[in-house]
């Protein structure tokens, strides 16, 4: 397996810290609204990465958090006249509904900030004691200058960052690049700490959760959207280096952003698309296919042409699969577990090459071409067809595309026989009636 490591800006051979095991953490959502289409791209990308790693033999533990403490959450709760917990529970539920609609596996652990507060406070206190953080009027800030290589992940120099930093004359910070670990606050949910009644800064949460869940300060893979490189992931690394001397993860993986009709999605442009609406419109399979049709590190442009292409491409795979299920069922041939390695190996090779899904799609279409040739034979080799079915299913499963095996009942088989007989006898009226019933049953 080869992966592009954002830290080294190069494709590297993947070697986990513990043989046969992969520990992966993906930054989760701040739950104050429904997920938009950009929020769910990481769901698809990192679920596909997990599936690929599992397919090649790794035992994968994937963790993704919920940020359920945030100014935006407080604002929405105040406007709605409800508690922050009501808001966060509503949108955690919505996020998971979208996740499952996209056929993504649930994380193996999903910690919440509100349930990790003691560990967060203890971690900030450690940084204060070590001199990497300082307290001003109940707020706690991290000293960026106390660690080396700040800006390495996002490929930025501190001098350049300083030029671009907004310098507030009344700032409490020693350095404009220093970031908040804890802030004293008068509103919203708050916790008592050694410094004030308040809540943590965003950048601290993931560092603590990784250590809290995995029980070690370094993991194999840390992932998220490209927009999290700076400052979020950069600040995570700085804290982890200060506290534990590690950069949190061996491999940093980032997915590209989502554009709508060639434009960046934003509220000001009015082009924000909720994931739930697109899933309801085109289905989870089509949306997932669309998201994987572009390499995960590249920007993904969503438009009507792309959606229609995804529909057609997916149909080219699913239709022959359905035809095979019908033929195998009519022949009373039970699909086994064996698959054709010749068909699957090129697909896996593409997926192992930094999740090269465009090449994986090409390998899948080549397999479908062979599959169709088997289907069109006058004398079908059902054992061969069965193996090819399993091969296609295996590839779809790694891509997270859901396919349901179709098994015909005796009634279905009898109806199918009547339809074929009517066609043979050129009784087109009867044939059309039987065909309509078969379509209604999802057989044709």
Could you characterize what this model shows?
There is one protein chain. With 444 residues, this protein is of the alpha/beta class. Helix content is 48%, strand content 14%. The chain has 15 helices and 14 strands. The protein has helices spanning 41-55, 71-80, 84-101, 117-130, 158-164, 202-214, 229-244, 275-282, 284-292, 304-330, 341-352, 357-375, 382-399, 410-424, 428-440, and strands at residues 2-5, 10-13, 21-26, 59-64, 133-136, 139-142, 179-184, 191-192, 197-200, 219-225, 249-255, 258-260, 263-264, 300-302. The strands form four sheets. The chain has a five-stranded antiparallel β-sheet. A four-stranded parallel β-sheet has the order 4-3-10-11, with helices on both faces. It starts with a strand and ends with a helix. The model has no long low-confidence stretch (mean pLDDT 94).
Write the layout of secondary structure elements.
Elements: E1 2-5, E2 10-13, E3 21-26, H1 41-55, E4 59-64, H2 71-80, H3 84-101, H4 117-130, E5 133-136, E6 139-142, H5 158-164, E7 179-184, E8 191-192, E9 197-200, H6 202-214, E10 219-225, H7 229-244, E11 249-255, E12 258-260, E13 263-264, H8 275-282, H9 284-292, E14 300-302, H10 304-330, H11 341-352, H12 357-375, H13 382-399, H14 410-424, H15 428-440
Parallel strand pairs: 3-4, 3-10, 10-11, 12-14
Antiparallel strand pairs: 1-2, 5-6, 6-7, 7-9, 8-9, 12-13
Helix pairs in contact: 2-3, 4-6, 6-7, 8-9, 9-10, 10-12, 10-13, 11-12, 11-13, 12-13, 14-15
